[in-house]
């Protein structure tokens, strides 16, 4: 049932957001060198790597490390990168990843391929068995502000309590956080 829900919502989202996504893609191309979409190597279900698309909010020459590990992450942002991140518009291409089955609408956010500490903790706790999500329980309970062990605790809570109602609650809370641009630090 979860997969069917994901397919319907992702397909609907791609239709609804097609025009805004086209505008964002053009804006990214007009304001910085490089492609509009950035494909990031991420860790998916059962720790298998997949390529996750995002609208590019960082310069093309940015090192492939988590943003919080950059000495001055704002120096790497494109002219509209801060806005894309604050508004979460950079995440819209991930609807494609949901449609093809690499991601789910709700689940733990996919780790970067080199976030060894996060990957190890999730694997130890069994969270790696979940399909990663566009949003997740940790995102609505702290997002960028949470240390990794706290994120994993919330991922484990989701693992044990996941249901359609919990997914709907997470989506509702996500919408509120996105509209208020709450808990986005980088």
Task: Based on the model shown, name its key terms.
three-stranded antiparallel β-sheet; globular; 186 residues; 7 helices; 5 strands; alpha+beta
Task: Provide a short characterization of the protein structure.
The chain is an alpha+beta fold.
Strand segment count? 5
Radius of gyration: 16 Å
Strand order of the largest sheet: 2-1-4
The residue fraction in helices comes out at 40-55%
Mean pLDDT: 91
N-to-C SSE string, H for helix and E for strand: HHEEHHEEHEHH
* Broad structural category: alpha+beta
Distance between the termini: 34 Å
Unreliable parts: none
Beta-strand residue percentage: 5-15%
Question: DSSP helix count?
Answer: 7
Main sheet summary: 3 strands, antiparallel
Cα shape: globular
Characterization of this structure:
This protein has 186 residues and is an alpha+beta fold. Helix content is 45%, strand content 12%. It is built from seven helices and five strands; from the N terminus they run H-H-E-E-H-H-E-E-H-E-H-H. The strands form two sheets. Strands 2-1-4 form a three-stranded antiparallel beta sheet. The longest helix has 17 residues, at 164-180. 32% of the residues are buried. The model has no long low-confidence stretch (mean pLDDT 91).
Topology readout:
Layout: H1 2-16, H2 18-31, E1 37-43, E2 49-55, H3 81-87, H4 94-100, E3 104-106, E4 111-112, H5 116-125, E5 133-135, H6 148-161, H7 164-180
Parallel strand pairs: 3-5
Antiparallel strand pairs: 1-2, 1-4
């Amino acid at each position: 049932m979860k997969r069917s829900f994901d397919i319907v919502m992702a397909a609907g989202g791609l239709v609804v957001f097609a025009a805004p996504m086209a505008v964002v893609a053009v804006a990214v191309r007009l304001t910085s060198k490089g492609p509009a979409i950035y494909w990031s190597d991420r860790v998916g279900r059962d720790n298998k790597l997949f390529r996750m698309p995002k609208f590019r909010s960082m310069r093309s020459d940015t090192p492939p490390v988590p943003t919080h590990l950059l000495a001055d992450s704002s120096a790497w942002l494109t002219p509209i990168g801060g806005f894309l991140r604050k508004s979460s518009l950079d995440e819209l291409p991930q609807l494609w990843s949901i449609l093809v089955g690499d991601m789910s609408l709700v689940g733990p956010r996919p780790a970067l391929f080199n976030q060894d500490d996060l990957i190890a903790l999730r694997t130890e706790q069994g969270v790696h068995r979940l399909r990663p999500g566009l949003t997740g329980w940790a995102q609505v309970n702290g997002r960028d502000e949470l240390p990794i062990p706290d994120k994993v605790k919330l991922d484990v809570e989701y693992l044990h309590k996941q249901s359609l109602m919990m997914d709907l609650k997470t989506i509702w809370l996500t919408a509120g956080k996105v509209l208020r641009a709450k808990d986005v630090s980088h």
